[in-house]
Amino acid sequence: MTQVQPLRVAFAGTPEFARVALEAIHAAGFPVVAVLSQPDRPAGRGMQVQASPVKQFAVEAGLGPILQPRSLRRQGKYPEEAGAAVDTLAQIAPDVMVVAAYGLILPREVLELPRLGCLNIHGSLLPRWRGAAPIHRAIEAGDTETGITLMQMDEGLDTGDMLTREAVPIGPQDTTASLHDTLAALGGRMVVEALRELAAGRALPATAQPDAGVTYAEKIAKDEAPLDLTRPAEELSRQVRAFNPFPGATIQVGETVIKCWQAMPLAAATSLPHPPGTVLAADGAGVIIACGGGSALQVTELQKPGGRRQPAQQFLQGLPLPAGTRCRVDGAL
Q: Which residues belong to any copy of the Formyl transferase C-terminal domain (predicted)?
């Protein structure tokens, strides 16, 4: 009787979302024969050089080799790094590669290296929210659900055939942080199930993505953080949740930039006739700010520069915001 060889997996990923998947694959007993991750970079308040979460786990678990090229394109900016990494992968000859939030484009040469191709764990229900920040943009847009799509990678930006999808509701209190953790765990479970199917010799059914419903999740930029208080409070509350934990939505009073970590919209006409940006009340229940369309935003967790996140009651002890205080609106007082 012929003994079935274990499925040899290469893994490519960088942040915590990817680390969760790598840990699940390793715990399921699949041999991880190579790990690719972004180069170590400065991070945190001290801006000390740190390894990515994926690399940290790979080191702790004794996985490897660990490859950290700045590019995988032989004709790109770093041809020597790319060539060495791709040649190493070719020598290892993995059966399949799993990719999750890696951060580098995989050229055709790499996509075709594994005999079973490259599987991507994407944090949205494709074709909605292709691109870099699908979790943030789903919350910001007011979507009622999102999920994980396991996809067979091609050379496009999240355009490959869908192998499996599973939906997750977006609750009214969900932030990018909370939804990230839910989706990361789901992605780990789904990819392990897919790998078990492949290991058993069963092909994964592939479905082409429809042309209708395509949206792109642009990378989150720090300059998106300021809240435009002329907009309705419902939209602003979604922005606060979407930008938690990065980059953190902000308001500005004078020269002080305040981060808003938790907020909820209040009923329409709450703020009339006050102009947007006016603090209507500030107490233990929160800081209530007039917004567009007669709405108001109640901010319940805030952070001043150099401080820590605090409930409104504690925050206001150090930085009072009496009724009538004006916040910057759309860049001007």
A: 219-319
- 266 neighbors 296 (Cβ within 8 angstroms): yes
Is residue 128 domain-resident?
Answer: yes
Residue 65, annotated as binding a ligand: no
Q: Which two tokens stand for residue 69?
A: 């090229």
Integer Cα distance of 18 and 29 in angstroms: 17
Residue 227 to residue 235: CA distance in whole angstroms = 10
Q: Is the domain of 199 the same as that of 227?
A: no
Kindly tell me if the per-residue pLDDT of 271 is higher than 90.
no
Residue 333 located in a structural domain: no
Q: Which two tokens stand for residue 264?
A: 């909820």
Quick: pLDDT tens for 58-70. Answer: 999 999 899 999 9
237 in a known ligand binding site: no
Residue 263 lies in a domain: yes
User: Structure tokens of 172?
Assistant: 């009214």
| pLDDT (mean) for 24-34 | 98
Q: What is the pLDDT of residues 163-221, one digit of tens each?
A: 999 999 999 999 999 999 999 999 999 999 999 999 999 999 999 999 999 999 999 99
178 is annotated as contributing to ligand binding: no
Q: Which domain holds residue 308?
A: 223-318
- β-strand partners of 164: 150
* CA angle in degrees (0–180, nearest 5) for 48-98-3: 130
> Do 209 and 227 fall into the same domain?
no
Q: Is the dihedral of CA 18, 21, 25, 26 positive or negative?
A: positive
Q: Within this chain, do residues 119 and 16 fall inside the same structural domain, yes or no?
A: yes
